[in-house]
Each structure stands twice: as structure tokens, then as C-alpha cells.
Amino acid sequence: xxxxxxxNELNVYESADARFETAxxxxxxxxxxxxxxxxxxxxxxxxxxxxxxxxxxxxFVGYRVHxxxxxxPCKGGIRFAPDVTLDEVRALAAWMTWKCAVVxxxxxxxxxxxxxxxxxxxxxxxxxxxxxxTAELSEWIGPERDVPAPDxxxxxQTMAWVMDTYSMHVRHTTTAVVTGKPLxxxxxxxxxxxxxxxxxxxxxxxxxxxxxxxxxxxxVVQGFGNVGSMAAMLxxxxxxxxxxxxxxxxxxxxxxxxxxxxxMDWVYVQRRPLPEFPAGGTQFTxxxxxxxxxxxxxxxxxxxxxxTENAHRVQARILCEGANGPTTALADxxxxxxxxxxxxxxxxxxGGVTVSYFEWVQDRxxxxxxxxxxxxxxxxxxxxxxxxxxxxxxxHDVDNRIAAYMLAIDRVAFALKLRGIYA
Length: 423
Ligand code: NAD
Fold this sequence. Notes:
Layout: H1 12-27, H2 31-38, E1 42-51, E2 57-66, E3 74-81, H3 86-102, E4 108-115, H4 123-136, E5 146-150, H5 156-170, H6 191-210, E6 218-222, H7 226-238, E7 241-247, E8 250-253, H8 260-269, E9 282-284, E10 296-299, E11 318-320, H9 329-338, E12 341-343, H10 345-348, H11 351-365, H12 371-396, H13 400-419
The chain binds nicotinamide-adenine-dinucleotide.
């Protein structure tokens, strides 16, 4: 791989951009298209005044970035976290463009974030932040414009508030303005499990390709939130051996494998710290769990976990990126040299946006599908996309990540050429 132009390895925008550059160069993307696709369409910064419970007035900073509307409305989550930056939101918006194109659904990429710490805010404060953020963005979001969803620090309740606020502004209930909503407000069956299910589907495909069997495949999952816990649960149910689990409090490793429904009960019903799970194994930090013996490593927490400092310590045969950006661009080359079969984030975690797309379709139809129908359609999309990415990698002699980017960029560039530039 040619030397990547990355100044700061941990800057996710630089990581995303470096992969775009490599893929665009390999595609021979013409200069104008290259520049069009490299930069976002729009970046919006909002200053959100919020009356805190104490009576104090606080101003929160929020962003929404539209990377592309070439193939359809923008689609992407809203993140509430203290370390949100415009660079991060920009990177995540671009990733959404490529992710939607990899799985061939009719959306472009967007992303939003508010700099705040949800753990330190009351429900009322979170609701007021969400509503004012939505009101500030009301002319830029909508079923035909930009369709947000939950991300780190936000959930289906946040989406219900966004939906309600938007609906009050447009004067009619518009469920299709967001996805990841509660079922009773137009959410889709299967959405909660969708990202984890997508991870399992791509792992099944990788196993078939590498001649491996679920029963003898050891999996380490970092992150036990929506993506990680659902992936662990579904993979456990399917016969995989989950030997490592971790959340922000720490991790556990047990060669014999975990009874994941019991871990779920411990964490989500009994609300106890994951590392204290009684039938657990050896305790590790959430970071060290990544380097324990396993066949599949499934990071499903935050960015920048696998870097040039530690990529040589990864013991897995398969890396399935449940999180967005868990591997830095500079670490890619080390993993490739080690022969790790990487299922890149824009494919591995695309199950979530795929079922979000189904939710949007169902809301607009006013007709809701059975869960098995949702799951079957998801399986069709993910399996087809996996096949397309690995075929592209084989044909063009590139790794899976660059293949996924090339396929996606090619699709967006083709649509852009058909549309032409409005002047
Ligand atoms: P979540 O908030 O539900 O869960 C995050 C989990 O990661 C929690 O268990 C938390 O304890 C853990 N965690 C946080 N910081 C950590 C750290 N430093 N080390 C180890 N563990 C840590 O979030 P989520 O929705 O599961 O999202 C996880 C990742 O997957 C994010 O990168 C997100 O962008 C990506 N993603 C989510 C979806 C989705 O549908 N939820 C879809 C695609 C991608």
C-alpha cells in the first residue's frame, strides 16, 4: 500500500480521508469528481441554549454534517458525547455515504453530534437539548432531506423527541424523519438487533470463505452496548463461542466461553458491572481484551482501538468491525501483512442502516413488516454486499476495506455523473 498522508493517526477524519484517497486513486477517479466527493455538501454548527434543572442557562454546541445527497437523502446518527468534534462528525458523515453505497440503499451520508455528557444530564435536560437541536435543524432534516438515527449517547427516546419536535414544526406527524424510533411510534421490528445481526451475517460468510466452523470459532467482543451485546447474543445463539466480552468498565476472558444470555441479564436486568460477572473468567481492561487469543475480534465500542502501537498484538484471524473506525488507517497495513481477514466497518456494521432504511420505507408506506420479513431482507442485502466486496477485492487485488471504498465511491460517482452538476 502506498504511504498514507496521515499527520495524526488518531484523527478519524484523516483516517477516513486516507482510505478515500487510496480508493479514489486506485479507481482513477477524475479530478472534479474526486474533489466533489472528498468534501461534505454542508456543515451546520448550532449553539443550543438550554435551561438546566438548576435554573442556569447553558449553551451546548451541536453539529450536523451532510456529506452527500447524490444517491438520496442524508442518513446518519446523532451522537451525544463530551468529545464530539466537527472532524469526527465529518468523518462519520462521509463513512455513512460509503456505507449506504456499499449495501446499495438509496441514501447519502450525514451525521450529527452535540458536545455534552449524557451521564451528567437529567432526562429533562437531555430532552431540552434534543428538542432545541432539532428545532435549529428543522429546515435541513426531513424524510426527503436528512434522516437521523441514534448513535453513541442517544437512543429511541431521543428519536421520539426529534420526531415529535419536527412534527410540531411541520404541523403533521412525520414518523419517517428519524429511524431507530420506539416500535409504537413507527419503529421497525428487528432494528434493535440489526447491527449485531449484520455482524453475525458477515462473520458467517467469512467462515464459509475461510473453511471455518462456528462451533470451533472463538470470538472476543469489545463493547457491550447495542451492537456488541446483540452481536454476542446472536452469535452465541448460532453456536459461536464467545470467549471475551468487555464494556467501558473492563473485560473478561474465559476460554470455555460465556453464557451470553446470563451476561445480558447481569448487565441489563441486574444492572451490575460486567467485569464482576460471577461465572466470569480472567479480568482484563477493556483495551487488553482486544489482544487475547481468539479467531474473530469484534470491536463494537469506540474509534481508534487498533493502532500502529498495538496491531501486531491482534491474534484473531478475522476482524469484524462492529464499531465505526475501530482501526486507524495506518494500522491497516500491519493487519494486512499479518493476513487478518478484515471485514471493514462500512460493511460489517451496515446492518443497522439497512434496517433503518426498511423502517423509513415502512413509515412512508404506512405498512409494517413481520420480523422474519425484515430479517430475511437484511440477510439478502448483507450477504449480497459481502459477496460484492470480496469479489471486488479479488478482482482488483486490494484488501477488503479498500475494495469496499472503491465499490462505494464508484457507485456514488456513477450516480453523480448521471445527475450532472446543477450550476
Ligand atoms: P452503545 O452506547 O450502545 O454501546 C457502547 C458500548 O461500548 C458500551 O458497552 C460501553 O460501555 C462501551 N464502551 C464505551 N467506551 C469504551 C471504551 N473506551 N472501551 C471499551 N468499551 C467502551 O453504542 P452502540 O450503538 O453499540 O455503538 C457502538 C459502536 O458501533 C459505535 O462506534 C457506533 O458508531 C457503531 N455503530 C452503531 C450502530 C447501531 O445501530 N447502534 C450502527 C452502526 C455502527
